[in-house]
Amino acid sequence: MGISGVERRKFAQLQREHDSLGKSQGYAAEIEKYGEDIIGNLFSQNQTLKNVRTRTMQMLNTIGMSESILKLMERRSKTDMLIFIGLAILTLVLIYFLIAIVKPMLSGAGTTLSNNVVHTEE
């Protein structure tokens, strides 16, 4: 017994559907592989971004520390300048008072000494 024309057409139709289903499964497997690759790339990019974020935070902390150290140095420099100016003024005042006290003493001693010298010559 042979296969009739209707059965051949049905068989051909089933064969085409089978082939189409096989291609569809191949496409689905390929799409799934692309999806896995994309997920792997996203995970890798996520790790890279986390590392960049960590390094950026460390850099910002370092910059913040550097900035606070620079501010501290600037404040310290101003304080040192004020101390220097204060001590310079104090030194000038002391020199003035020493001159004011010692000069009359030397002038008085000088006159006595010159008087003694003058007396011996007479």
UniProtKB/TrEMBL annotation:
<feature type="transmembrane region" description="Helical">
    <location>
        <begin position="81"/>
        <end position="102"/>
    </location>
</feature>
<protein>
    <submittedName>
        <fullName>Uncharacterized protein</fullName>
    </submittedName>
</protein>
<dbReference type="GO" id="GO:0000149">
    <property type="term" value="F:SNARE binding"/>
</dbReference>
<dbReference type="GO" id="GO:0012507">
    <property type="term" value="C:ER to Golgi transport vesicle membrane"/>
</dbReference>
<dbReference type="GO" id="GO:0005789">
    <property type="term" value="C:endoplasmic reticulum membrane"/>
</dbReference>
<keyword id="KW-0472">Membrane</keyword>
<keyword id="KW-1133">Transmembrane helix</keyword>
<dbReference type="Pfam" id="PF12352">
    <property type="entry name" value="V-SNARE_C"/>
</dbReference>
<dbReference type="GO" id="GO:0015031">
    <property type="term" value="P:protein transport"/>
</dbReference>
<dbReference type="GO" id="GO:0006906">
    <property type="term" value="P:vesicle fusion"/>
</dbReference>
<keyword id="KW-0812">Transmembrane</keyword>
<keyword id="KW-0813">Transport</keyword>
<dbReference type="GO" id="GO:0005484">
    <property type="term" value="F:SNAP receptor activity"/>
</dbReference>
<keyword id="KW-0653">Protein transport</keyword>
<dbReference type="GO" id="GO:0031201">
    <property type="term" value="C:SNARE complex"/>
</dbReference>
<dbReference type="GO" id="GO:0031902">
    <property type="term" value="C:late endosome membrane"/>
</dbReference>
<dbReference type="GO" id="GO:0005794">
    <property type="term" value="C:Golgi apparatus"/>
</dbReference>
